[in-house]
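One chain shown below:
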Amino acid sequence: MRIIKFRKNVFFLIALLGIITVNAQKKQTNQGKPNVIVILMDDMGYADTKPYGSVGYETPNFDKLANEGMRFTHFYAAQAVCTASRAALLTGCYPTRLGVGFALAPWDTTALNPKEETIATLLKNKGYVTGMLGKWHLGSKAPFLPIHYGFDTFYGIPYSHDYWPVDYKGNPVPPDTPNDWRGKCPQLPIYEGDTQVGTIPNLEEASKLTTTLTEKAEAFIEKNKNKPFFLYLAHPLPHVPLAVSSKFKGKSGGGLYGDVVSEIDWSVGKIMETLKKNGLDKNTLLIVTSDNGPWLSYGNHGGSTGGLREGKGTAWDGGTRVPCYISWPGKIASGTVSNQLMTNMDILPTIVAATNANLPKEKIDGLNFLPLLTGKTNKSPRDLFYVYYDLNSLKVIRYKTWELVLPHSSQAYSQAIPGKDGTPGKVPYVKVPLALYDLIHDPGTIQDVQSQYPEVVEEILKYAELAREDMGDAITKREGKNNRTPAKMQ
């Protein structure tokens, strides 16, 4: 009897040890696949957080994020407009290569082609749980919503929250209102997957967006803490119209805009706190950035470029250079700052390298920055960046520490009186001549030095020709050889 009992105990211990071993191996496997979170702000300017020079209000969680990882001082969005920038982020491609641009309105029929492989697609193929929260803006209805682009789940809005029948002061705009395009907008829908589950009819409901999305992000992390996951949180704010919850309204000391940024700062802090509480912080690659620079025509309801020229809707640095924080404790040295050139197209291949996923089958334009992030090199793999706008007009080329501005037409916020309290000012368009700027000595791009460095102009113009041959250029009426077709919605 004792021998039988002993054998039973041995078998029990062996079985228990096997379960523990399997669980440990499973846990180690999950730890071998880092979680990935990308938090994207809408219209947050280069200098809207304290580590980049904001004044008038505090951003303690952005401060903490900067102290725990790396921030980039020369990080660029591919274009200074919502749809194009988001396409670049998710696909690693120049938006003009994909045939998407501008900010798609509810009645537009263009959408990102579902054949394009996104970060979500690539990580889902690697066994990740993928979720998106917030503003999509790459297609306004099914089947062109996030769950058709690699995301398992989606909760949010299909486009910017100013596409609604509400005026600058929050009052309804009737459908028959003359000379006001907002009257023909539908009520702003909220989607869960492909299903509309509500609307945002007014500023009061819009003020709940940041908190609701943050709570859902926390729930996503909690639910999937034992699996590798990718979360894309695209906050609709601080894009106008500004809206903030009662817990932050009037509290920042920096006006309504400061209140909105303070709530976003709180959101970032809550996500960092949730990761730490669940023991996930050291196994999570966290990237926080903005889709483009501030909408300067809105004055005190817009953000700050920190002295960079112009803003959203232009090819100047104020429109394309944005804040970027990247944290991965134990992998990325804490409190580091990089002045190397990086773009939001580089996020996809960097995530792919960090997760050992596969790159898209089609050509991409992004480059892998993981060696720079992890300290294996201090040199950027990128020294060239083409700034297109108006879908495919080549307007600016960043090359190393030079910026060549090609002749084009542009908004000129610097020649306008900004708006106030939610109503925009009128911004003129101007003709922009050829110019060369030395970003080492002239970060505000004020002094044209092309006459002093004609050899630099000549060298960069050769790259312009390569871009025109590859992707085309509407200004010089060139067709690109390697562009792909967007989707068309019915």
In short: Confidence is low (pLDDT under 50) at residues 13-17, 19-30. The domain at 34-379 is CATH 3.40.720.10 (Alkaline Phosphatase, subunit A).
